[in-house]
């Protein structure tokens, strides 16, 4: 009979471990090194911790870990609770959790790596690489064949299968082959709408297997995970030290029960990764290191440009209203599923890449903010207890105190030259310093006499300005600046042309009076 563990017993037996966990010698020995770079203020981490701990209590989560990665370092990490209800062993940075659908990013990146190697094409029909698909019956006569790209973005027309798919991880390869030969029903024609499909990512795993000549999990482990130093991460729950596992539990009718473990199999490509915080922070750091684009040698197992490609979707957005930290604060966002990540332009966080993981016995979430070089992740060992909302709130806490500044673009030589010209134009009240620096449209959009009269009016309002203020580039050919003036501020925008050499095609100045 499956043993039940009442919550009262969990709290009574574990409260001491929860309170002392931060000072545990065992955890201190197992925890990854936290680098000295920019520490997050204690009052911020206190608020973040409180949110995770409240979530743990409210959602009846035996064990929970959460971490913050910034500029390649794990700058904050915390644990709470137990990995095993029987032994009351605390969760640590070394505790292994199933991360369920957060595994999809590994499969997606393996596909891109094979593409980089010239072994497959994203726009090729998937049946080129999985012959069993060639006999499938599509839902309409005008349905396009499923492309590899469609599988990555969940627009293959296959039905949403979370409840079913979560129980298929250990399906053997030969059984999957027979399923593919028989064909599957479609929910809709491919390339017409987003519909999340675990089956589609199992197909991607088969593509990795067929193209690489080795089981997909071996390819991902040897070609991606091990080069990153993720030595504890893999797909076989039975192959790891069982004492290191955070066992998975279900909370039902006021008690915990054990969830059965799922061994390796075909559907591991959509959700089979088991990892720990010590390994996963290396994965997060590697992904974030792809931003911004730059010169310099490639240091990872997959090209930076290909990692950035994980954020590219197929324009089937869904619109959601997200809550802010304060009651009543909301943000309407459009979410696109790209390749192993859902991508959003957030009101406070900028561009984000996120994915949850929900499995029998486990829940997890990761949120990347590539423009800031920051990622937040969390693992839990209770069925479907993905702390997505809390991870996002942790990111909002960081944003609220300025801990998520966007990485600055370097100011290119053409922009620096044009910015110096803009300052001289203002100081002299004349466009003479800009001679030879203006694109052909500039004097056609407004004549120089008209522009100089407007400039005189602007100087009369603002007075003398500090034109040596820093320039904030948002690309190699455009950017903004703010000049502090006698009577207020001037907000400026500078845009160069697509010529060689680039010339000034637009220069806008707006006066903001002092309060």
UniProtKB/TrEMBL annotation:
Keywords: Signal
Matching InterPro entries: AmpC-like, Beta-lactam-related, Beta-lactam/transpept-like
Domain Beta-lactamase-related: 49-399
Gene3D superfamilies: DD-peptidase/beta-lactamase superfamily (3.40.710.10)
Signal peptide stretch: 1-25
Pfam family, one: Beta-lactamase
Domain of life: Bacteria
Protein name as catalogued: Penicillin-binding protein
Source species: Hyphomonas adhaerens
């Amino acid at each position: 009979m499956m043993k039940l563990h009442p919550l009262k017993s969990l709290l009574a037996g574990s409260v001491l471990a929860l309170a002392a966990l931060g000072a545990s010698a065992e955890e201190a020995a197992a925890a990854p090194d936290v680098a000295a770079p920019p520490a997050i203020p204690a009052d911020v981490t206190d608020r973040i911790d409180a949110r995770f701990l409240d979530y743990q209590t409210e959602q009846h989560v035996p064990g929970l870990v959460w971490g913050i990665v910034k500029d390649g370092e794990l700058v904050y990490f915390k644990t709470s609770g137990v990995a095993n209800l029987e032994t009351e062993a605390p969760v640590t940075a070394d505790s292994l959790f199933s991360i369920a659908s957060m595994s999809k990013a590994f499969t997606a990146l393996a596909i891109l790596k094979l593409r980089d190697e010239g072994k497959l094409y994203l726009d090729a029909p998937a049946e080129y690489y999985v012959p069993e698909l060639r006999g499938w019956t599509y839902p309409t006569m005008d349905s396009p064949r499923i492309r590899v790209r469609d599988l990555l973005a969940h627009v293959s027309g296959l039905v949403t299968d979370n409840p079913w798919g979560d129980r298929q991880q250990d399906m053997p390869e030969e059984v999957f082959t027979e399923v593919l030969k028989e064909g599957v029903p479609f929910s809709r024609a491919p390339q017409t709408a987003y519909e999340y499909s675990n089956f589609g990512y199992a197909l991607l795993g088969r593509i990795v297997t067929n193209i690489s000549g080795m089981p997909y999990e071996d390819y991902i482990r040897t070609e991606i995970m091990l080069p990153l130093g993720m030595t504890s991460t893999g797909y076989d729950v039975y192959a790891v030290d069982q004492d290191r596992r955070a066992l998975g539990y279900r909370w039902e009718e006021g008690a915990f029960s054990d969830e059965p473990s799922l061994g390796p199999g075909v559907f591991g490509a959509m959700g089979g990764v088991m990892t720990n915080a010590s390994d996963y922070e290396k994965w997060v750091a590697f992904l974030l290191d792809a931003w911004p684009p730059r010169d310099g040698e490639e240091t990872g197992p997959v090209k930076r440009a290909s990692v950035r490609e994980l954020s590219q979707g197929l324009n089937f957005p869904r619109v959601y209203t997200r809550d802010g930290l304060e009651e009543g604060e909301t943000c309407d966002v459009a979410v696109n599923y790209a390749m192993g990540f859902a991508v959003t332009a957030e009101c406070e966080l900028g561009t984000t890449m996120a994915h949850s993981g929900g499995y029998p016995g486990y829940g997890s979430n990761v949120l990347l903010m590539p423009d800031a070089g920051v990622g937040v992740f969390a693992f839990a060992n209770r069925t479907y207890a993905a702390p997505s909302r809390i991870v996002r709130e942790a990111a909002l806490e960081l944003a609220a105190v300025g801990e998520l500044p966007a990485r600055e673009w370097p100011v290119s030589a053409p922009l620096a030259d044009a910015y110096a010209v803009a300052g001289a134009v203002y100081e002299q009240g004349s466009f003479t310093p800009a001679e030879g620096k203006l694109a052909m449209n500039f004097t056609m959009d407004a004549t120089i006499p008209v522009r100089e009269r407007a400039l005189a009016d602007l100087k009369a309002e603002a007075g003398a300005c500090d034109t040596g203020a820093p320039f904030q580039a948002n690309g190699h050919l455009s950017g903004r600046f703010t000049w502090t003036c006698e009577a207020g501020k001037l907000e400026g925008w500078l845009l160069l042309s697509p010529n060689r050499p680039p010339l000034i095609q637009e220069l806008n100045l707006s006066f903001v009076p002092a309060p």
